[in-house]
Amino acid sequence: MGPSSEDSINVDAVNLIANEIKEIRELGVDVAIVIGGGNIFRGVKIAAKGINRTTADYMGMLATVMNSLALQDAIEKIGVPTRVQSAIAINEISEPFIGRKAARHLEKGRVVIFAAGTGNPFFTTDTAAVLRAVEISAGAVLKATKVDGIYDKDPMQHQDAVKFPLISFEEAIIRKLKVMDSTAITMCMDNNLPIIVFDLFERGNIKRVVQGELMGTLVTSEQNINLIKGGTVK
Ligand code: GTP
């Protein structure tokens, strides 16, 4: 969710994302979402200022619950049923995370929003997304973010940064690329789960990615990359 001047929930951004999610639901695609909390609370940043890291991470997880509820509200307002499942017991507000139940919700055409990360400190939202993706046997992890792919160096700081259209899991780990942490990428590698990193804020991007358009950066196995380069996989 994009940063706003008040550094909290940007309702316009939430509505935009909700509409894009509706569009892909209408294509018949099962959608499960893991959302971060950085717009409200960035645990690592606060920890650096002296709050205990574990505490700061739990606070960050609570921030993701708020974002999840905001997104649930926006998606349901436009007629798409959703369920929020939280990794931290918060039963008055959302159902608990139960993988099998999440799978049933998806079968019934509901968008499932996973809140509170993995429920553990020291794990990022990316790792939570990959963990949930593996648990529900997702076909891919789509990382919609504020950069339009993975670069060899920070494109905000270096004008000559080069974007990778394709990169293998191994290379992404070796290069210690900032856009996704190594725990998340390693888990994708172990489960052969591709990741697509792309720009969240360009209208229609989520739909284009879901329809198979190669954009942003695809992180996948060496074997897949060779197949794509050989033109076998589109
Ligand atoms: P099916 O009956 O399997 O189709 O799924 P369902 O989600 O409609 O059934 P369920 O009876 O589990 O849930 C009904 C409503 O209560 C849904 O909106 C759920 O999200 C919500 N719900 C279920 N469990 C909990 C919970 O532990 N806490 C909260 N706050 N809501 C819950």
The CATH topology label of the largest domain is Carbamate kinase
CATH architecture of the largest domain: 3-Layer(aba) Sandwich
Shape assignment: globular
Written as H for each helix and E for each strand, in order along the chain, the element string is HEHHEEHEHEEEEHHEHEH
Would you report the number of β strands? 10
Provide the domain count: 2
Under the CATH scheme, which class of the largest domain? Alpha Beta
CATH superfamily of the largest domain: Acetylglutamate kinase-like
Strand order of the largest sheet: 1-4-2-3
User: Which residue ranges are poorly predicted, with pLDDT under 50 across at least 5 consecutive positions?
Assistant: 1-5
Q: What is bound: which ligands?
A: guanosine-5'-triphosphate
Task: Report the major sheet.
Answer: 4 strands, parallel
- Using the CA coordinates, give the radius of gyration: 17 Å
Distance between the termini: 30 Å
Q: How would you classify the helix and strand content by structural class?
A: alpha/beta
H/I helix tally: 9
How would you summarize the topology of this molecule?
Layout: H1 11-26, E1 32-34, H2 43-48, H3 53-77, E2 82-86, E3 95-96, H4 99-107, E4 111-115, H5 125-135, E5 141-145, E6 150-151, E7 163-164, E8 166-168, H6 169-174, H7 182-190, E9 195-199, H8 205-210, E10 217-220, H9 222-229
Parallel strand pairs: 1-4, 2-3, 2-4, 5-9, 8-10
Antiparallel strand pairs: 6-7, 9-10
Bound molecules: guanosine-5'-triphosphate.
